[in-house]
Amino acid sequence: MYLKSIKKFNIIDAAVGLLSAVVLESLTTVVWIQVTHTKVSSINGPLSLGQEVSGFIGLWIGFIGAPYVESKLRGSKIFTNDVGLKINWRTDVILGLILGVASQFVFVNLLYLPFEIMSKSLKHTLSVPAHNLTASGTSGGFYTEIFLVAIVAPIAEEIFFRGFLLRALMDTLNGRTKYSVLVSIFACGITFGLAHGELLQFPALALFGILLAYLAYRTNRIGITIFAHIGFNSVAAVMLISSR
To answer: d(Cα 184, Cα 165) in Å, to the nearest integer?
Structure first.
């Protein structure tokens, strides 16, 4: 994977894939609203369970579909090999979860600690997006969204960002600069942070994305990044459950 590939992934295709995922997210949400005749949520308010799940489906179809198509067009045509979807069960699960949990406390708690001292309301403001995301009225709906955010989202996002985007960046920049690996890792992490669309959460998400990109590069697979991502999201999920 990455620099070892014979055929090269294209950064333009990765950009188109990301845009397609965002469009599909909106499209599937609109289709759900039209089919179910549900009330449209306010821009800043929480979405219904149906709106959230339908949006997730569209987004994840894009996140997985784009690298799958790229694998068939430019890769080896073996999807799992091209995106590095391999897991070393002896190390990836335990080490990944530990790194993910630790990152949540380091990148989120310590990063914002000085600002929380100055602004007592910052902690609440930072948690608003997560609370809105899991604001379904029913207990079943709440835990469904927790499962999707903690388990399913990390898999889809790692396949796209570390399995596809990182490789596309490295394939495109390879030979153009001696810092191609470093630039690719940072660009992948920053794009990951920006893709979440949350300004306050961006620094922590970007740093975490950079760590995940580095892990994918060093291990030549995304198994460890999937479990690190699951650990990271699961900490937030546990906090939401405890505050419910």
So the answer is: 9
| Helix (H) and strand (E) counts in the chain | 12, 0
pTM listed for this prediction: 0.87
Tell me the per-residue pLDDT of 151-198, one tens digit each, with 9 for 90 and over: 999 999 999 999 999 999 999 998 788 899 999 999 999 999 999 988
Q: Residue range 54-58: average pLDDT?
A: 94
- Domain residue spans of the chain: 2-242
